[in-house]
Amino acid sequence: MASPRLETYCCPNRDAATQLVMNFQPEVFCGVCIGSASISLLLTILQLLPKKGQSPRKMPKASSSSTILLLISICDILGGLGMIFRSSVWLGFPGFIANISVVNGTDMWPSTFCVGSAMWIQLLYSAGFWWLFCYAVDSYLVVRRSAGLSTIVLYHMMTWGLAVLLCVEGIALLYYPSLSSCENGLEHAIPHYITTYAPLLLVLVANPILFRRTVSAVASLLKGRQGIYTENERRLGTEIQMRFFKIMLVFVICWSSNIINETLLFYLEMQPDINEMPLKNIRSAALITWIIMGVLNPMQGFLFTLAFYGWTGWRVDLKWRKREIPWESMSSSTVGENAYPSPVNYQSNIHDSKKISTTDSQQTDEAISMLSEGNTSSDERLTRSSPIYQGW
């Protein structure tokens, strides 16, 4: 699981709240993390592989939105691998990990492994949060026709730059001036927790607003395409809205336990003695949410693929084949100047207005198809209702 408590546990003089959760059934907890991360890893890869008997995923062209969805899954896969490796070492070499608690120990490898594995997990999931925010931004820009494949470079710079910057800054403040003196006061821990949870809270607050604006813009595009709002277009708009809802639902399910757990642990840290009897229920709630985090955090990768693409099936097709992009053939055969023979007495200005309308309609269809990428029924319905498809 991904929690800033992983880094604070690397401090030999860790706080009592961190000691409480990290020492609670560590074998069971590591086993839960390994099992959940392994299942999510296998199912995520299965979801992304091409399937037999299914048509290639229809895309208007290489889009930044589809690239971002793939990068989110890659971050989840790499983060899950980090969880499996870290928990496996903790289970297989308990004596190696026990050396972390020795303040004056001369062996630096246990602390190096602890800090390195925790930073790997934290960095990958933090990058996934930033990519999810970029997806919301890109979805809104796509329907506003202000985004393209070139913007992916800016997203890379923002995502990896901010993820690395916040992670390194938080770790540096936590372990300053040395690993043996960290966690001596909240001035070390609080900046670390802020830099860890800032991208998570950004997604929780900003993404619903951006998704809501995108859905409104999609409805305007669909209404303006032919001047009417048909049942097919209404259903397509609803499916895009449901896709955004599923993405946020998965995110809330997987990470709300982290916020609850951290709130409870901070409350315990502020108490003179966390082992007092009146705090028993709070300690129990903190331990329960700690185990829940070990289950839900790694499952984000698989649940996101369900929200992005739906269930893609079990039958994997490992044979390489060229995926046809239907928009290329469609646009080349219809938007061209001689796509359809026109009467000789057609006026040139009418002909030009037809071409402009067709181009605008194609751009609208491409923007909406980017948002519904991965949903075959939506793509097919969009193509059938398109003026280009109807031979406008």
Automatic annotation (TrEMBL):
Annotated family: Belongs to the G-protein coupled receptor OA family.
InterPro entries reported for this sequence: GPR143
Gene Ontology terms: cellular component: apical plasma membrane; lysosomal membrane; melanosome membrane
Source species: Cardinalis cardinalis
Primary residence: membrane
Pfam assignment, any one: Ocular_alb
Subunit (UniProt): Interacts with heterotrimeric G(i) proteins. Interacts with ARRB1 and ARRB2. Interacts with MLANA.
Region annotation (Disordered) ranges: 371-392
Its job: Receptor for tyrosine, L-DOPA and dopamine. After binding to L-DOPA, stimulates Ca(2+) influx into the cytoplasm, increases secretion of the neurotrophic factor SERPINF1 and relocalizes beta arrestin at the plasma membrane; this ligand-dependent signaling occurs through a G(q)-mediated pathway in melanocytic cells. Its activity is mediated by G proteins which activate the phosphoinositide signaling pathway. Also plays a role as an intracellular G protein-coupled receptor involved in melanosome biogenesis, organization and transport.
UniProt keyword Transmembrane present: yes
Protein name: G-protein coupled receptor 143
Membrane topology note: Multi-pass membrane protein
Subcellular location: Apical cell membrane; Lysosome membrane; Melanosome membrane
UniProt keyword list: Cell membrane, G-protein coupled receptor, Glycoprotein, Lysosome, Membrane, Receptor, Transducer, Transmembrane, Transmembrane helix
TM helices/strands, residue ranges: 28-46, 67-85, 119-141, 153-178, 190-211, 244-267, 287-311
Gene Ontology biological process terms, A to Z: melanosome organization; regulation of calcium-mediated signaling
Gene3D superfamilies per UniProt: Rhodopsin 7-helix transmembrane proteins
Any one Gene Ontology molecular-function term assigned to this protein's record: dopamine binding
